Amino acid sequence: MQFIDQARIAIKAGRGGDGIVAFRREKYVPAGGPSGGDGGRGGDVLLLADANLQTLLDFKYKRLFAADDGRRGGPNRRTGASGEPLRIRMPCGTEVRDARTGIVLGDLTAPGDELLVALGGRGGLGNAHYLSNRNRAPEKATEGREGEEWLLQLELKLLAEVGIIGLPNAGKSTLISVLSAARPRIADYPFTTLVPNLGVVRRPSGDGTVFADIPGLIAGAAQGAGLGHEFLRHIERTRLLIHLVDAASATVLEDVQVVERELQAYGHGLGARPRILVLNKIELLDQADLDARLKALGGHGVGPVLAVSAATSANLNRLLAVVWEQLGLSDMGAQADLAVTSGAPQSS
229: helix, coil or strand? Predict the structure, then answer.
């Protein structure tokens, strides 16, 4: 499945039906009054959050959506049928903005959430409304109103509780593939991951927590460099960040500082988000080198510092125990279960 997290669509609510001019014509009623009915109301346009959707791919191919128009009125004061409302299904986590002003119109976060984005036009009035003492046979009726039209900017922000961040080739995709059933593309070169990946990790209680692995950050990501700027928004909703660092790097402290600066520069509360600093690939170091790196990072002050190996699964139980503690899901001494649950669909 191709992962699309931004789209722009045009929507148009239905036009109201026209009112009509008609007069009552019945046997033994030679001077029947006006009886023109009102037009029906145009259909509204609503956005509906659907848990079965994972991407905005559908809106790459269809970008214009219009609700049904109302029907014209009928004789004997019959009101025309209203247009059916149009419900457009969106993945959970979609933020909706007015494309012209940038104003946020709503945020669809939970399955079943609905957002009314365009009101249908009001139906016109039939001539029965214009009966008066001075005009007993009005021949006036009004047309229906046009429905609202909007150009919408859609942005999908993944709904994950834990975000995995770090420089390219730090082992983020390997980690999420070991902790969950997610199967991202993994290779020994930078920028292997080009789209976010989701995985569900089993909690000690037995239910699941969603982890998100985003493409690697580089210096300047918050200003648009590399892929980081495109995908940093996917960790805006997370409660906790796992900052993964390549323990074998010759510049471990500088690597940490690069990502920290980008989080601060991006804003949206990411700089203050609770996080765990994790040294990965410890199988490539001897104990003395590992101890030196841990000591250097110990005073960095960004949160707990752990050392793991995603490739050999070393210390991953300890990492998950700290994650559950930070999320308030278990006691410090609880042993996390590495049993695989289910993974969300990934991009191909």
Answer: helix
